[in-house]
Description:
Mean pLDDT: 93
Shape: elongated
Distance between the termini: 97 Å
Catalytic activity: Hydrolysis of terminal non-reducing beta-D-galactose residues in beta-D-galactosides
Low-confidence stretches: 1-19
Number of strands: 64
GO biological process, one term: lactose catabolic process
Oligomer: single chain
Largest sheet: 9 strands, antiparallel
Strand order of the largest sheet: 50-51-52-53-64-60-59-56-57
Family: Belongs to the glycosyl hydrolase 2 family.
Structural class: mainly beta
Number of domains: 6
Number of helices: 9
CATH architecture of the largest domain: Alpha-Beta Barrel
Protein name: beta-galactosidase
Organism: Spirosoma aureum
Radius of gyration: 33 Å
Amino acid sequence: MKYRFLTAFLLLVLPALPVVAQQTEKRYLSGTGNDNTVNWQFYCTAGQNSGKWTTIPVPSNWELQGFGKYNYGFAKDSARGKEQGLYKHEFQVPASWKGKRINLVFEGAMTDTDVKINGQSAGETHQGSYYAFKYDISALLKYGSGNLLEATVSKHSANASVNEAERKGDFWIFGGIFRPVYLEILPAEHIAHIAIDAKANGTFSAQVQLNTKVKATNVLAQIYTLSGQKVGAPFTAKTGNENQFVTLTKSIPNPLLWTSETPNRYKVEFRLLQAGKPVHVLSRYFGFRTVEVKQRDGIYVNGTKIKLKGVNRHSFWPSSGRALSKKLSVLDVNLMKDMNMNAVRMSHYPPDDHFLDVCDSLGLYVFDELAGWHGHYDTPTGTKRLKELITHDVNHPSVIFWINGNEGGHNYDLDPLFAKEDIQKRHVIHAWEDFGGFDTQHYREYNYGIGNYNHGHSMTLPTEFLHGLYDGGHGAGLEDYWEAMWHDPLAAGGFLWDFSDEGVVRTDRNGAIDTDGNRGADGIVGPYREKEGSFFTVKEVWSPIKLERREITPTFDGNFPVENRYYFTNTGQCSFTGKLTRVNGPYTLEKPLEKTFTVSAPNLKPFEKGALKAALPADWKDYDFLYITATDPHKRELFTWSFPISLPNKIASSIIKTEGGNEVVLTEADSLYTITANNIHLSFNKQTGILKQVANSAGTIPFTNGPVLQEGVNNFKNFTHRKDGKAIILESTFDRKTSYNTLQWTIYPSGWVKMRVRYFPDGYFTMMDGVNFSFPEASMKGVKWMGKGPYRVWKNRMKGGALGVWSKAYNNTETGETPFVYPEFKGYHANMYWCRFEATGNPFAVVTENEDVFFRLFTPAWKTDQWHNYEPIFPSGDISFMQGISSIGTKTQRNETTGPMGMKNIFYDYEKEPARAKELTLFFDFSGR
């Protein structure tokens, strides 16, 4: 009865009491991140700049500061080196702190760390790189005067299992104190730790660990909104023995729930009371959400089955290694959200605390990982690191799964400890194993599985798939995989490998960026987050608003079939806008004419289909392209889809001028036809019809040696010439057996030149169909085109671009290699209407009246992988105009195993009749304008 009366009294009186309790205070000894550092004294024992005392910024990795040796995990000496960093830092402690609890906290140091305060050991050596650890140094400090912190950090561990788990992985191995170091100042009696479980039904439970000597009597808690409004009444629990745990519970009716789409958070404040007065106040942010795994079914968040659209992320920045900042965490999470991802895997170790904070606030599901890569921690060491992992990350609503190691680096003895340490009992998986109901095999082929995987009974969740070496993987193949995942009840989604290129600045190589060959060049974005082409493909394929393909014909009624692929969001919560564009031709710099229109969205629940209704203006047919933009409830663009109104034949007719100029003159000399029209001089081979030379009044245009058929027989024969009005036509003669492919040139008095090729691909399956020309790469300055851009495409990565007029200067970029200049110049480009090539001294233009034409610019100097899976195939010649292009593979899969889009082109015509041939028509303007 006395306890009940006291509790009721506290609930009434305490909210009105002045708050005199101490909140946990942080006093940073280092900086807070790579953008805010503090210099400490430093001595490196081996490698660059070793053997002398100097200074180093903390936090940092010492290699990036010019010390030691760079090691990638596969290096033979990466786990045997004796490299150490000796740190010293002096700091003041006020006399007023005496009698308080002072913890020295390291958020991360790699890897073995020995700490002394004023010459005395602070505690046992900490082994393991990515985990926060602390020492109680209250008894070691000199209060009211200066103190000396000394830390010896060994790059490689004395514990062989730590090296197996952390230092022999497929990633860069760094040394140093790479996360912040600070003092945690607490009252003698204090709240030591809080673990929260807040469920979707509003049930709130918190385990509170106390450091008391029975002077404190109660713990009081109050939940708040982020704006500071109280949620429900305060609730309390009575304290008891020293260092005890108490549990506080509360039920909140109808809370706003946390999901990746609705990252609603609350704050809870805990007060440790002594004689009715608070002596310590501690706050935590949390979210109400329930995550369930239903075996042979799926992952459920708040009762709704979800699929994960995720990516793997290393904690990495090229100029600072694994020393990061909250600003970079915000950057990375926003980039992931911009790609319409809803999940991220922490590969292969726990991240910075601020990264999880940002995932909480912006909304990403997180798979948090105990380190292990083909090797694992021994059980005593792994038990300690597991406890540190869960203690540090337990309250983040974004963390929905734990991963016990990667690709064989699993210590099975640790599996039961996750549930023991985690109040939320999150599910545990092993990356690359069939474990815990999930088959997480990496890099499986699209059609893989007989009695297992897609044809088995476990839920499929590849924790790595579509390895993004250079420009392969990621967006290339994703649409095939994702549509299969979307419609498979046992598919729970997956995680692409990986987010950013691990290109590190080499202080020992004059600042060059090094990806260790093909090992680190596998990001969707570059080292400094430069967007590659797959970024936009992923954005479209994973858009939760899916617009179905449709043709914009003269009878178009403004309806766009749409599917809601959100899990918790109604389409009515999103906004949609429309735009029409009328573009200009290749010779003008004027901006396109634009007109906007409204788009009405239906109220579609998740997984429902319906139609967007565009209120098109009466003159919409006078425009060339139509765009629909979808924006989510948080004002983030989901995607902008583009649709052609004007087809290439209409645009071509507005550009091509056949009249004007003088009479077309043809002469014959030896093996050449020479034709002159309006100061354009052309030479053709009389036997093959191949263009041999082009010139105008400004000089020669080195566009020659075409058309040469790709994967077709150049059997153009028996050329004749004739007049057609004022034009001259050169054409080959069709013969079913010996010259079934035909070529026709038409030279108009205006100087425009028309090429018409009718051809049969040389085989049922082809990699590429079209024609090639020669052009010296050194003479190319840039290109401007009308079509889809600005990034290049592959057969299995067609999405992500937009129709419009684009231009880019020549570059020699190889994706994932220095210089990281995007979009790349070389490669295939889709949906060509026209191109204007900026050549040295003499530009020229090419126009087509055909739909679905690709133009190809040169051949990148491709690197490859040891299995030769990645290698893309390009046509011969330098500039090509194609009607079928090749796909691209990944580091781990050949292109044809990544789904139907990765397979070869198919063209069937047994009889080889002219009416069944492919036809490509191009118009050339060699006037130099």
